[in-house]
Amino acid sequence: MKIKIVAQIINENVVMKNLIKNLIKNLFLIHINFYLMILILFSIANCSNHQIKINPVFSYGLLSEDTLKYKIIEPNKFKLLKHDSIQLDKVGMIHEFRNLVDADLKINYVQYIGYQLGSPDKLRDKIELLGREFMLDSFFYGESYSDTSEPRKSALNAVYKFTFSERNYLCFYIQDITNPNAMLNTEILLFDITQVNQLRLILHETQASENLKCFGDFNKNNKLDFAYWSFGNDFRDTLEVFELDENKNLFFKDHQHFIVIKDSLNNYYWDIHHYQWYGSEMKNLNQ
After folding, report:
1. Which pTM does this prediction carry?
2. By the 8 A CB rule, do 138 and 154 touch?
3. Distance separating alpha carbons of residues 98 and 110, to the nearest angstrom
4. Cα separation of 136 and 112, whole Å?
């Protein structure tokens, strides 16, 4: 009988210990869950007061809220004036297509189809503007151009007229379609046409985009700016700013401001951790 009572007491003690252990365990879990709940609520409140910043998809529209007032002349508005076939002894048959772009400014876009190495300079693609000729190969090749350079094929994709600070500008976007898959194959030509008898070419640069919003007044100092997007290494590109000096008709680099653009999943993102733009905060980055 005594043995049964002792055994019963031992069982009751074991049960009691288990109950106490489970109670302590449950109290501990309640304590942990309570602090987790407090932490979650604090995080939610903190996020509501501080907007979470993510890298937005880059567009020139993010650079400034102001937009230029412009008129675009699209290729479907070009008018074919003449098509000639020119027979050359050494080269063969070359076809010349002369397109009227704008009658008021006497803009013609002249293409030559079928030319090869050895074609004379006068039979290379060109822009005719106010009585002057601008051979496109000289822009595509830059300083490396010579009369022995292989002729390039071009496409005039867009022409813009716009006014800024009481000056008139004309902008051409010309693509080198010899290698259509190249990332940097569009040449920008920017002319100051304020005085038509003093035509000035003030910019020719290779650009990754054909968006006119690469021009603007980003720092609000009433001077024309150019946002130049250049491709770099390790999927990191840089957008740099150049400001026009109207007295010298040249763009000068602003070394204090830039944007790093990241290439990811076939898209381009503004790296909000690596940039220095005008103003302490870009209001429209997270809109």
Report:
1. 0.75
2. no
3. 5
4. 12
